[in-house]
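My convention is simple: the sequence line spells out the residues, with the fold written below as integer tokens. I include a record here:
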Amino acid sequence: MALAAESQRIAKEFELSDEDVQKITNEFIFEMNEGLEKNATSMSQIPTYVTGVPNGTEKGLYLAVDLGGTNFRVCSIQLHGDTTFTIVQSKVAIPRELMVAKTATELFSFLAKQIELFLKNHHEDHFNAHIRRRQTVSTPEGYRDEHIFRLGFTFSFPVHQVGINKGTIIRWTKGFDIADAVGQDVCALLQKEIDILKLPVKVAALVNDTVGTLMARSYTSPGKTGTLLGAIFGTGTNGAYVEKLSKITKPMEGDYDKTTGEMVVNTEWGSFDNSLKTLPNTIYDQILDKDSINPGIQMFEKRISGMFLGEILRIVLVKTLANPSIALFRDDNSSTNDFKTTASVDADSPLHTQWAVDSSILSIAESDSSSTLSVLRQSIEEKLGVSAPSIEDAQAVKTIAHAIAKRAARLAGVAIGGIVLQTGRLKPGASSVPGPASTAHIVEDLKAGNLVDAAAATASKLADTAGLAVNEDEVVDIGVDGSLVEFYPDFEAYMREALRVMDGIGAAGERRIRIGIAKDGSGVGAALIALVAAKMEKPLDYLNDLDRKLEGVKEDDGLLHA
């Protein structure tokens, strides 16, 4: 009984009340606007120079490459113009020596070579035709016949972006360390090596994978109003949304298309409320942050993303194990354990090692509703290194894991709700139907004898559960990706709970928010951004590309060596 009571007490520490949700949402919107007005803010609100989203009718063949870690992916995406696409892709590991090369040339020449190999292997006819045509270039129109591939480059490292295909490397992460490349334009570095190989490829767009998620969703699930937000809730978390250009008042370098009146903004919301004005901050959050590699930074992400949820659970369990009055993962005798033995923590248990507990155990805990919690108990043995965990042990883990994940989902709902409210996509009156009262509130009314209020609240809750049809014209479309939204049971339901209690959204507004999975932002999403970039190209861009190619032909013919 002591263990059950303690797990319930801990779970309450992770509760995020409706009032908390509203307060955090207000701060989220404040920090969004702050980031639109000036630089060096908690939420960076980075302009992407992408000024349009697809509608599902786009056609064409585009390339996409993704350098996000230890692998390099090359894709070609054929857009069919009917919301569908065909993708061909290859992946290669980055040699360790190139991750710490002395010069940028060593890495980027390797990347260009992989693009060349991909074209030879998967687009041989196009590649060979280009080689033949390259020797007969004479006029701009003749050159245009080469059908240059537009390429979207997903580069998942900190970059200062100053144009749709321009951005300087701020620093390396994820084991890369090439000092020579810092401060250089990442797209120019790749284009230089592509040109040396005389490939029919133009690096048309520098891509953030979250922006790609937005684009992929907008193409594959088009609606009358267009997708508003692409969000990732997985190992990390971030969002990119469509903002009015008039609201972006901080200085922007570089050219962009002003005719749409909109621009996609990369929020970098993982760093929301780093000062902890409104975010919850339990002792477990404090321990995680203090022992992390970046204390005081990414405070929102540290409460939401899969990278951290398993570690929060580990910290809670370790602290509970240290309490001599609570019998977690230990039994006085085997008679209290239905395995007829005593539970114990293995010497090499992941509980003893920072970051060693995978967040997937939270999904397993939520999914197992059996009376014996057999699946969860097996996972506790395998993933936590605990021998013969009892039903009581498993129930304690389930209770605590549920509380951690539900808080994460409600905070994720804050991010979505903040974007929806900031952009005004819900017309006035959308929140005229108030959100239903919580079950706890209804119980309090009953206890206080407020029977009329309790009855009205119950009717509202039943109506909310039943749902109402939503006109397609009124839908606010959200694209999401990541393991949490895909695999954690009811993650979306808990997000929606938070949306319903927000001023300006309510039950009626929440019904109009459509949340759907958007896959492969760094592939099809990057290709779509390359398409948008191609549409933005001016004749001067084209002539500059021609000059560069003609110079290459002259070099081949020895004309520059006379």
The radius of gyration is 27 Å. The longest strand covers residues 71-80.
